[in-house]
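Hey, I'm writing a tutorial for new members on how sequence and structure tokens pair up, and I'd like a real worked example in the thread rather than a made-up one. If someone can provide the structure for the chain below, I'll link this post from the tutorial.
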Amino acid sequence: MLKKISLSILLLCPLLLSANPKPFDLEINKSTITDLNNKYSSEYIGMNQYSEGKMFKININELKFDELEEAIAIYSKDEVLKAILLKLPKTKFDYIFKSLESKYKIINKEIPFVGDKSAKFIDDTTNIAVSAPHMSFSMSLEYINQDFYKSFKKILNQNEEEKKKKERSQL
């Protein structure tokens, strides 16, 4: 009996460890629009050109996070959460960085005494990025599914290439 329980725990551990981040109890690459609507009030703000899914501005007063300025949830066509984009005052950078550093694997960090500050983390299939531009009063915190990010970069590069091609044709 004890062997069966031990075996069950060993088999389930990888599943428990591979969960995506759940900012504000919304799991990246798992939560749905229904989950969002059951937890928070939000406003539909349009379709995302990269995921071809809906975007919602979440009522920040319901998130109960001091000084949060904006929270946007981006979904896929099949209504699965692909990204959460947050805007906060830049004064929260150190607090946010230390919190993320204690939870996620750090990939890159650039934190000069003066200048732009940024850090990138990873957890399962989610990239987490925090960025505080030097000449700004705000910072961003982004939780983005890796597949969505790859699609975003691919479309962005295609658009840039088309723009350059059009410009060259005008010379």
